[in-house]
Specification:
The complex is a heterodimer of chains A (236) and B (214). Chain A has eight helices and two strands. With 236 residues, chain A is an all-alpha fold. Chain A has one domain. In chain A, α2 packs antiparallel against α5 and α3 packs antiparallel against α6. Chain A starts with 16 loop residues before the first helix and ends with a helix. The N terminus of chain A is likely disordered. The radius of gyration of chain B is 19 Å and the shape is globular. Chain B folds into two domains: 116 residues, Rna Polymerase Sigma Factor, Chain: A, CATH 1.10.1740; 90 residues, Winged helix-like DNA-binding domain superfamily/Winged helix DNA-binding domain (Arc Repressor Mutant, subunit A, Orthogonal Bundle). Chain B contains nine helices and no strands. With 214 residues, chain B is an all-alpha fold. Classes of the chains: A mainly alpha (236), B mainly alpha (214).
């Protein structure tokens, strides 16, 4: 056997018995939860659906005195409403799956999948929202003029988005030892999409600046919150 | 004939390793469900490769001890997040590296910390099992000093890729999953590490002798 085939030095060393005893002692005195991540993920998704429905319907009733004013369109636009709703659903589902999927190795979705999903979802949602709005620029519901800067929508998106981030971060607590930064972005984008669904249902506005500030910027802000705050929750 | 024997042995070793991996996965699934008494068996199954990995990351025994201990504690706290059927060792590697990176980030924010030693003095008491003669052992130790010193000098990303793929025998896909990167990325890092070690051995005048020995 040549010298190059020899093992490197660390191969023959191991932890001492004292270290083993110390670890045993520390573990005996440390409590660890046993609720499986899969159960926490299911609970989080149920909570997110309930939160989104509750905030959207509550805000719609409170502000406009009716449910889902954003889903009321001219008869000629009904087919487009169905298509847009379906696409929004697919984007939200895709972003949520990418953020929460555990994978067969238990490390979650790969970095390429996470990064691509985040980019595609954010780009398609922005284009869908800004390029050809479903509603009129000067829409009015219940004699209320809609804010040109989308303050109400931004507030609703923030409440839903932060709630979703909290639910998903709690579900994935200590569950992601690798690529936590990009996983944090994925959680933020998923939260942004749920917020997007909420304002889509709530808001009948078609003005560009309103849609940019109230509907699209929250997704960007939530992605930022995801990358800054979420990783430390995800690390074991 | 020799090839047949080698093939048979490697097949048996591969089956043995697969059996141990599956057995550890079953134990970890029970541990995740709250069966604390299987911890010792999990510890026995992980201690050697995990300690080696910690030693490679930190290069100092006392830091490796700390990292090893913290890794087990984190595994304990995060046991409910273990995905049934996944490789426990790879999961442990990923947790150890995540912890190590957190420590490096912490140290970087504190200038009073001097950083890990760039020498191999603390590893000098570690010897190679397979040395057959004192002369061979001496030559191997010198060669290994060069390799280990070079491992300490290289970036953490290249070192981790090298250790997982070349020392621990992980596939590129498994190493990429443990390091949270792409398969191409991890291959590139391991290749860069190979090149760096090769050039260090060459500078130290070893390459000719190593090739001659083969």
């Amino acid at each position: 056997m040549g010298h190059a085939d020899r093992e490197l030095p660390a191969r023959s060393v191991g932890p001492s018995e004292a270290l083993h005893a110390r670890i045993r002692g520390r573990i005996a005195e440390t409590r660890a939860p046993t609720t499986r991540t899969s159960r926490r993920v299911i609970a989080a998704v149920v909570a997110v659906v309930a939160l989104t429905a509750l905030v959207t319907s509550g805000a719609s009733e409170l502000v406009y005195g009716r449910l889902a004013p954003g889903l009321v369109v001219a008869p000629a636009e009904e087919l487009r409403l169905v298509g847009t709703s379906l696409l929004l659903g697919v984007l939200t589902l895709g972003a949520t799956l990418a953020a929460l999927w555990r994978g067969h190795r238990g490390f979650g979705a790969g970095v390429t999948t996470l990064a691509l999903t985040g980019l595609i979802v954010a780009a398609v949602y922005s284009a869908l929202t800004l390029l050809r709005p479903l509603h009129l620029k000067d829409a009015q519901v219940a004699n209320l003029t809609i804010s040109p800067w989308g303050a109400r929508c931004a507030l609703i998106a923030s409440i839903v988005g932060v709630g979703v981030i909290a639910c998903f971060a709690a579900a994935l607590r200590r569950a992601a030892p690798v690529a936590t930064g990009v996983r944090g972005v994925a959680v933020g984008v998923a939260a942004g999409m749920w917020a997007g669904v909420a304002v889509f249902v709530f808001c009948p506005s078609g003005a560009s600046q309103h849609l940019l500030v109230g509907h699209v910027l929250p997704l960007v802000a939530l992605s930022g919150i995801g990358v800054v705050l979420v990783p430390r929750w995800l690390r074991p | 004939m020799e090839a047949t024997v080698t093939w048979g042995v490697s097949l048996a070793t591969s089956r043995d390793m697969k059996g141990r991996t599956d057995s550890l996965a079953r134990l970890m699934t029970r541990y995740a469900a709250g069966e604390d008494d299987v911890f010792e068996a999990i510890y026995q199954g992980l201690e050697a490769p995990l300690y080696r990995f910690c030693l490679r990351l930190t290069a100092r025994r006392h830091e490796a001890d700390d990292l090893f201990q913290e890794t087990f504690l984190k595994m304990h706290r995060a046991r409910a997040t273990y995905a049934p059927g996944a490789s426990v060792l790879h999961w442990a590697f990923a947790i150890a590296r995540s912890l190590y990176l957190s420590r490096v980030r912490y140290w970087r924010r504190r200038p009073e910390w001097l950083g890990p030693a760039n020498d191999v003095s603390e590893l000098e008491d570690v010897h190679v099992d397979a040395a057959s003669t004192p002369e061979a052992e001496l030559i191997a130790d010198r060669l290994l000093d060069v390799v280990v010193a070079e491992l300490r000098r290289m970036s953490e990303k290249n070192r981790s890729a090298y250790v997982l793929m070349r020392e621990e025998g992980l596939s590129a896909a498994d190493a990429a999953a443990v390091l949270g990167t792409t398969v191409d990325g991890v291959k590139q890092r391991a290749h860069r590490a190979d090149q760096q070690i090769k050039s260090a051995l060459s500078e130290a005048g070893w390459i000719g002798e190593v090739h001659g020995a083969r």
